[in-house]
Structures are given as C-alpha cells and as structure tokens.
Write a structure and sequence with these properties.
The chain has 316 residues and is mainly β. Helix content is 4%, strand content 44%. The protein has a single domain, classed as 5 Propeller (Tachylectin-2, Chain A), CATH 2.115.10. Bound molecules: beta-D-mannopyranose (BMA). The site of beta-D-mannopyranose has 9 residues, from loops. Beta-D-mannopyranose binds next to loops.
Length: 316
Amino acid sequence: MYEEYILKRYPDNPIIKPEDFPGAEAIFNCGQTMYQEKTILLVSVSHRSGHYRGKKGATTHVAESRDGIHFKINSEPFLQIPDDEPYKSVDFHPIDTRITKIEDTYYVIHPGCGAWGTFGILGKTNDFKKHEYIEIISLPDNRVPCLFPEKINGKYVRVDRPYRVVPNELHEFGNMWISSSPDLIHWGCHRPLLKPYTGWGTTKIGPTPPIKTNEGWLMIIHGVSQSASGFRYALGAILMDLENPVKVIGKTQSFILAPYEQYELTGIVANVVFSCGAIPDFAKDQIRVYYGAADTCIGLATGSLSELIDACKKEL
Ligand code: BMA
C-alpha cells in the first residue's frame, strides 16, 4: 500500500537510532536545514538516565551529514539553557525544533513547558556552534510557531497551532493561525488559517516552516486522528498564496506518509510519523523529510516536489 504514498521511505530506515548516541533511549523529531552544503538536523535525545551531564530531560544536538544519510552527532548539547530571566522562571522542553533561515541567520524555535504551560521560545545561530536565545514569542498553549523564510509585505510572518485542551462542539481542538511582526518579537494581526479538514487529521493539525516555491508557500503539516489505540500522527502538505499566505490555495486530502513500518508502529509513542520541517532541492525536483518515528528514531522519506505541489493543487 505504501508505494502509493507521495513520500517514499529510505530503504535502510531508520537512519538515526538510539544506539547511535550512548545512553539514549530515543532520538527523534528533528529540525532540519542545509548549512554550507551539509544537511543539519537538530536531534532531540532523551536519555535512559533521565539526564545528561547534569542536564535534566531531553537535550538537543547538532547532527551533520554530507550525503544526507550518514550523520555525525555532536555529543555537546547545542541548546544551552540560560540561567537568567525570562528563561530562569520557565521549564524547557528542547524538542520539536523548527529551523528557518532568514538571510544569513538560522532561527530556531522550540517549546518551553511545565507549570506555566507550553509556549514557543525563539533563538538564533549563524554557524550551528553558538546559539543565542532571543525571546519567548507565544503564550501557552502554543508550542512551536513556524517562521516563513522571508518578510511578506514588509513583515515577518509565522504559522501557529494554538491548542485547545478541551474541545467542544463550538471549538475545534487544533487549528492553525497565521500572524505577522515587524521584528520577530512582537506579533499581531492574528488570522485563522486552517482547521482540521480530513480523516487523518481530525483531531489537530500542525505546521512546519514553509518553503517558497513558484506555485506558493509549501508547508508539510502533521495531522492527528484518534482511535481506540489513541492518537495516530500522519503527514500531509498544504500550499499558501505567495503574496497573501492566509489564503490556502491547495492541500493534500490524502496523507503523504503515515505509520506503516514496524519502527513507526511501535516505540515510545506508537503510531507516529512526525516532522519538524523538510529540505527542498529544486534542481533535483526533490523534497527530503526527516521524521521522528514512534518518538524513538529518525527516518528519511523523499518525494518529488512537483508531484507534491500538484497533489496540493488538485487536492489529491
Ligand atoms: C507531539 C509532539 C511530537 C510527538 C508527538 C507524539 O505533541 O510532541 O514531538 O512526536 O506529540 O508524541
């Protein structure tokens, strides 16, 4: 059945496994980008001991590769949690990193969590060695805003998935919104973008950093549906108007990847394929998606960019 998916799995998946990092129980849901012709993943590692060199909880590490398949993971955590305000008062949850390159700077957003709720924290790097925190940029519960890679009509733009913990007949559970900012810190002009619209994402849908194409802004999304076995996470894609991205001009009705292989069906959280982004290669007409499988390991799936855009436009 999976031959029909737009994204095809790399045959030797998973490409990064817990065994690749001493002491890890899981390596998953990575931010992804290109830097100096290398593929960079920001991998989230959760440790068997529950801590890593004195750091509690998960740590985030730079993994780099020349061929996009074999990665070297830096054992030094990339995100160093600052000891001053406003960060001192909140708990960190450095997983699910979303990376957006704007001019020469790579912006990294990840969630904070804990008693104060779950919210987005913005930071930046120019070299994937030094990272600097900038500001908390969303209220709870809104964990990982995704930035567009350039200003649109003079403003920075982002997509959010604010989260309603208790849905009812009047309020959906997980819709996406869009907003703009003059400086990446102060955000406003919030507008609704898209509600859950299809069977594989009836419960909630969530964004990744949009990719500019000639046909519109392409965004890989995740969709969550529920069954007697709990949540199931699949991937789809939408297309937004280049000038006015609040206008959704296409979306895949079908998922483009869903849990099917054993490493996606079983693991720390069963039935999950989850992505924090995608890497386009326009010359090769290819999109690469590094995705977390069952919150345990990382798989790679690739597909044709033009086929994906077409599927959005034709609502396949
Ligand atoms: C989401 C994120 C993902 C994870 C998924 C399933 O809320 O936290 O990192 O893959 O849940 O656990």
